[in-house]
Amino acid sequence: MSENPAIPSLPAELPGAVAPPVLAEVVRSGFVEGRHRGSLVLLAADGSVEAALGDVAVPVFPRSANKPMQAAGVLRAGLELAGERLALAAASHSGEEFHRDLVRKMLAEHGLSAAQLQCPPDLPVDRVEAEAYLAAGGVRDRVAMNCSGKHTAMLAAAALRGWPTESYLDPDHPLQRLIREVVEEAADEPVAAVGVDGCGAPLMAISLTGLARAFRTFVLAPPDSAERRVADAMRAHPEYVAGTRRHDTHLMRTLPGTLSKVGAEAVQATALPDGRALAFKIEDGAARALGPVLGRALTLLGVEPEVASSIGSTPLLGGGREVGEIRPTF
Fold it and tell me: 73: helix, coil or strand?
């Protein structure tokens, strides 16, 4: 206990004292200057857990890694989407011009307006695109927000069914209840908690093992199912799921048949066409650790080293030149 009354006493044990394992370390000029902890699960083709690091049974918020399930819920509601439109419904898009154009087209096709979207106004998440967007006089806009495709699809599904459109983000809305059913079926476990995502949509917590199972379910689902239709659209049009400079796009292009989706706070889920799958979360939410951890996890699942290294390479710069890297530790 502190003898200085100006310094508060600290408890003997802090909450969450048992830390997850280190999955990546930051090496600058040969010196380890930081570490990223997290949890990761790998599933074999038969769905069994092949390897696990950390606690992969505790619920997490998958953030945008839940979007394939949300898109499948929209299809189950009866909304007819296919191709690029369905991929955009499951997207965390970069806000590039072709993304924004398709969102506007989809709104017009369903007799909707951007003013009805309840995602917050934002700039493109891609830095290159954001600079060009601002230089052209662009301002924060709901259409440019990375979740605008998902919100457009949700709003269109609600309008189609005659459900309230002004409350389409309410967790008790018929559409959101339907999405919850999809999440629970695909993950093969109940939703542990419901929160609010960064875009305002309901956010449903499942375990990392459940998340990996869900992605496996989507790639192995019957061709005419909502789940498989979403997976097929995402894999056929990955640039609409992410963007021209994003690792999900690169991975789905490089490994045909692979389904991959990132989520905020450094969540990643990926399934290979034969059912092998992975999911992980970096504890501190550092997106810079995503590539190295994903690349190493893919290697452990048997993906060719050349492909895995192209995903995992994350150099550190000093004075404009490479002086280190972020590297996996497992």
Answer: helix
